Amino acid sequence: MALSARNQLEGTVRSVKLGEIVAEVTIELDGGQSVVSVITRGSADALGLKQGDRAKAVIKATEVMVAKG
């Protein structure tokens, strides 16, 4: 699937915590860092996400905040 989002980070699903409405998905990137995303439970179910799956974190945002200190 082709996407316009350029920030596509590949990794391995380390955990999927399913709630009634949302799911928290942790993806360990190939470089060792992790990305955590909260998605709808329906989306997690539709994707069939489970620990050990290869997945991409696709980031499309209108703003990024930076803090120092």
What brief labels describe this structure?
about 70 residues, mainly beta, OB fold (Dihydrolipoamide Acetyltransferase, E2P), four-stranded antiparallel β-sheet, 1 helix, about 10% helix, globular
Distance N to C terminus = 39 Å
How would you spell out the order of helices and strands?
Answer: EEEHE
Q: How much helix is in the residues?
A: 10-25%
Output the structural class.
mainly beta
Overall 3D form: globular
Provide the gyration radius in Å.
13 Å
Oligomer: single chain
How do the strands of the widest beta sheet line up side by side?
A: 3-2-1-4
Number of individual domains: 1
CATH homologous superfamily - what is it?
Answer: RNA polymerase II/Efflux pump adaptor protein, barrel-sandwich hybrid domain
Number of helices: 1
Low-confidence parts: none
For the sheet with most strands, the description reads: 4 strands, antiparallel
Instruction: Output the CATH class name.
Output: Mainly Beta
Number of strands: 4
How big a fraction of the residues is strand? over 45%
Blueprint of the fold:
Blueprint: E1 7-18, E2 22-29, E3 34-40, H1 41-47, E4 54-59
Antiparallel strand pairs: 1-2, 1-4, 2-3
What does this structure look like?
The chain has one domain: RNA polymerase II/Efflux pump adaptor protein, barrel-sandwich hybrid domain (OB fold (Dihydrolipoamide Acetyltransferase, E2P), Beta Barrel). Helices cover 10% and strands 48% of the residues. The chain is built from one helix and four strands; from the N terminus they run βββαβ. The chain has a four-stranded antiparallel beta sheet.
